[in-house]
Amino acid sequence: MSGGTTLENANPVIFQRSGERLLADTDADEDVHDPIDDREIFDLIRSINDPEHPLSLEELNVLEQVRVKVNDAESSVDVQFTPTIPHCSMATLIGLSIKVKLLRSLPERFKVR
Which residues form the MIP18 family-like domain (predicted)? Predict the structure, then answer.
């Protein structure tokens, strides 16, 4: 029970987190053009907490790097996520959390879907 309500998925399956991104020397150099890629976007959103659990979206397998697509040249980011249960009432909140995080983190030129 959480706040007097029953959790929709009280016992979710927990997945192992992926390793940290390996950085190249040029990643820290502000003078080198470094296009934004799928992994960079995934790293921005993977630690967002699920609304019902003290677990990240990555740990619940709601987010996977293979479902993040970036086209830096066209300034677009597409993220697909999979709620832990069908007809999840938190799906809208999860999508909004992802979108807000990306809109706050990316240059304004990006369109986030």
Answer: 39-112
